[in-house]
Amino acid sequence: MRQEDLPSSRRSRLTRRGRLALFLGILLALGTAVLIPLLPGETPPEQPRRLLIPEGWRAPQVYAAVDRELKLPAGTTRKAAATAALPLPAEAKGNPEGYLFPATYPVTSKSTPVELLTYMVETANRKLATKPVADGGKAHGMTPYQTATLASIIEAEADTPADMGKVARVVHNRLAKSMPLQMDSTINYALGRTTVDTTLSDTRIDHPFNTYERQGLPPTPIDSPGLRAMAAAVAPTPGDWLFFVTVKPGDTRFSATYEEHKRNVAEFNHHRAAAAPPAPRTP
């Protein structure tokens, strides 16, 4: 039945907005881009800002970034994380370290710390549940939480993405031989710092994250690993390496024997000494 055949009481009338929507539909069908004029009193929709969380950030860095982006007092997001019911695995015991997935997140004036942290954790859960990562973890007898923990070490230790598979192999080889991992990154995490200088006294601290003294993976992840580190954790590069050292940027040496590793470390120390500023003269 045609519109004009209906009784006047049943005829529909397009509102101004309806006519605009119909007009827009016709123009879109013709491939023409238009802007919808606002009605009186309407405000334009808010354009989301972007919050970037880089690979390798620790939880305190993420909390501080959220506070800055939402213009909240320092410490607000950290406190929210301590009480929020985030969708973490039971192994995490409420600690989101390692599950604040590095990515770019939309932020609006209505965003809250708990919403953003939940989004990050849900994203990490999805990445860990992808078939290659999940199946690879199972093949190595690892839970998703252990995969995240191993991936966080790889994220911290690998000088380049190309090195991630080899770093993962070193960790797997050491675990298979019941050798301590001896990763400086876990010492740095224990001491709340980032450095390439680890002293003998550092390696003797009594701390759960001291992988020089304690065997196996550390009790939690030590940063926010990305998908490439997760993939490397479950599909390491084939090799018999047990040691590695980044002699200089872009040049990481992997070795199967301690003798070869000592030569590489000596070269690292040589480069460090050559790059060090001269000591100040004394009168």
Notable characteristics:
283 residues, mainly alpha, 10 helices, two-stranded antiparallel sheet, 2 domains, 4 strands, disordered N terminus
Mean pLDDT: 88
Low-confidence region ranges: 1-24, 26-30
* Total number of helices: 10
Please provide the ordered H/E string of secondary-structure elements: HEHHEHHHHHHEEH
Helix content: 40-55%
| Main sheet properties | 2 strands, antiparallel
Quickly count the domains: 2
Strand order of the largest sheet: 1-2
Shape assignment: globular
**Strand pairing plus helix content: what structural class?**
mainly alpha
Number of strands: 4
Strand content: 5-15%
Cα distance spanning the termini: 105 Å
Global Rg: 27 Å
Task: Give a written overview of the molecule.
Strands 1-2 form a two-stranded antiparallel ribbon. Strands 3-4 form a two-stranded antiparallel sheet. It folds into two domains: 49-128, no CATH class; 150-275, no CATH class. The relative contact order is 0.11. The chain has ten helices and four strands; from the N terminus they run αβααβααααααββα. By secondary structure, it is mainly α. The chain is 42% helix and 7% strand. It has helices spanning 16-29, 59-70, 76-83, 113-128, 131-139, 144-157, 164-176, 184-191, 227-234, 258-275; strands spanning 49-52, 104-107, 243-248, 251-255.
Helix and strand topology:
Elements: H1 16-29, E1 49-52, H2 59-70, H3 76-83, E2 104-107, H4 113-128, H5 131-139, H6 144-157, H7 164-176, H8 184-191, H9 227-234, E3 243-248, E4 251-255, H10 258-275
Antiparallel strand pairs: 1-2, 3-4
Helix pairs in contact: 2-3, 5-9, 6-7, 6-9, 7-9
